[in-house]
Amino acid sequence: MQPETAMQHEMTQILAAIQAGDTPAEDFAHLKLPDSYRAVTVHADEAEMFAGLDSRDKDPRRSLHVEDVATPELGPGEAIVAVMASAINYNSVWTSIFEPVSTFSFLKRYGKVSELTRRHDLPYHVIGSDLAGVVLRTGPGVNKWKPGDEVVAHCLSVELEDAEGHDDTMLDPQQRIWGFETNFGGLAHLALVKTNQLMPKPAHLTWEEAASPGLVNSTAYRQLVSKNGAAMKQGDVVLIWGASGGLGSYATQMALNGGAIPVCVVSSPDKAQICRAMGADLIIDRAAEGYKFWKSETEQDPKEWQRFGARIRELTGGEDPDIVFEHPGRETFGASVYVAKRGGKIVTCASTSGFQHSYDNRYLWMNLKSIIGSHFANYREAWEANRLIDKGMIHPTLSRSYALEDTGQAAYDVHRNLHQGKVGVLCLAPEEGLGVRDAGKRERLLPAINRFRDV
Ligand SMILES: NC(=O)c1ccc[n+]([C@@H]2O[C@H](COP(=O)([O-])OP(=O)(O)OC[C@H]3O[C@@H](n4cnc5c(N)ncnc54)[C@H](OP(=O)(O)O)[C@@H]3O)[C@@H](O)[C@H]2O)c1
């Protein structure tokens, strides 16, 4: 057996302090931080490795590495967190296939902002935009958080030195997604965050459950519920693409929790079953019903939009969607604009199938519909979304978890749409099921927490 390295020894001490469950803050503050840590990375010198391949054939298992990297220096307003668990987001897929651009261009640009941000511009990128873990160190100027706090982190990183971001931090010109447009992300044993990313970890959840909602839950909250998005209200009919996927599984729960009527679009009977388990009963299996919105590479088929719209009306008793929750992009956008109700909203946060959208504008202007762009969430929206999880009103949609060493496979599953809900990654947590601090509350909510498990 290999002798334990200094890094492994220090990580073992950190893990023991966390596992004890009652370690005082002072003891956490005195734990030695290792000089290096295990992390999932992509490499700048491999950014061209998939040149010429179709997106589908670009394999995250080849580009994602698990290796030791140097622990970054801690700056003002920041924290180093011991990461117990993280999760795969679609941005981890984009990073790993270097699409639409290599994330090293983001790191380079960020590196130019200040002396402190220069740390991020490295030939490797530690990725990951979710975490659940424990604060180990806080930098100068941090008062609200201390070593030992059990936290989750949202992924909005802002500098807030300009006026524009002071109504809504998403409008800050220096707005970035942590672990995608910044370095030192959550798919690792340690992470560097700004402390205004931190939120309390819901006590009834395991580490991997707590880590899984973050990015998508906050995004769905702004996109669907917030006044900055679609401002959903009771009784609204909400068409949700990918309703059992990362974003959609939260949008579906929020629609039901908020008294709206979700119409869930999925692509298999299993996924339809998950939507039923969440409490939705208006479901369209797009694969079984065979919608083909594009006749050729360049031409859409309005007859298919009509067939889809008629199906929605059949389910709703003749009503059209007040809100369309969009993210597939090119393949569905023409249909989304067509089926939205007169005066309805199409709210989009992504373009998974292609970002050049086309739609028939007559349906938009003549029917007074609007298209709203939405991106992640500000701190307050992320906090409100996390509060819903903490209150047991919205639940994690974790289907399975992988070891950190197998992150490539986890990202591959999401890239190939082989997954349900969210896919978790165990970082320092040696096994699943740890970190629950309120067992009674968990017991009451267990069936809802487990809806997506192993389906
Ligand atoms: N702007 C932001 O802040 C933000 C935040 C989170 C995610 N995103 C983006 O949003 C997208 C979805 O993320 P996610 O986490 O929900 O991913 P996900 O877990 O893969 O779920 C997306 C679902 O969309 C459906 N879908 C995929 N391609 C489709 C197509 N061509 N037509 C119709 N439905 C399709 C699939 O469901 P079915 O096969 O069951 O229909 C899939 O499960 C990604 O592009 C991601 O980068 C953006």
TrEMBL record:
Statement: the UniProt record of this protein carries the keyword NADP: yes
Assigned keywords, A-Z: NADP
Keyword NADP: yes
Start and end residues of each Enoyl reductase (ER) domain: 61-425
Gene Ontology molecular function, alphabetical: crotonyl-CoA reductase activity
SMART domains for the chain: PKS_ER
NCBIfam families registered for this protein in UniProt: crot-CoA-red (TIGR01751)
Name the UniProt record assigns to this protein: Crotonyl-CoA reductase
Protein source organism: Catenulispora acidiphila (strain DSM 44928 / JCM 14897 / NBRC 102108 / NRRL B-24433 / ID139908)
Origin organism lineage: Bacteria, Bacillati, Actinomycetota, Actinomycetes, Catenulisporales
